[in-house]
Amino acid sequence: MSITENEARKVAHLARIAVEDEALPALARELSGILQFMEQLNEVDVEGVEPMTGVTPMRLKRREDVVTTGGMPGQILSNAPDAREGFFAVPKVVE
Fold this sequence. Notes:
Elements: H1 5-14, H2 24-42, H3 73-77, E1 83-84, E2 87-88
Helix pairs in contact: 1-2
Enzyme class: ligase
Protein name: Aspartyl/glutamyl-tRNA(Asn/Gln) amidotransferase subunit C
GO biological process, one term: regulation of translational fidelity
């Protein structure tokens, strides 16, 4: 699949990336290369292959899922630019 300059311009716009017109051909080639690589990956037969969380088979560490206070509200609030009555103070954003 090949990406045109207009498609590259649209992708840049959607990604909110400012791209100069003279850089569009290079961006289009780079995006086309990425899509070609993805097409190559689609050719790999993965039938019967178990999904992995890493390259070495090991069980994920788990902890009991319990709600706590954190035990250190003073330390946490010390990082805040403004804290009042044990909470983060933020500017009002809704009228």
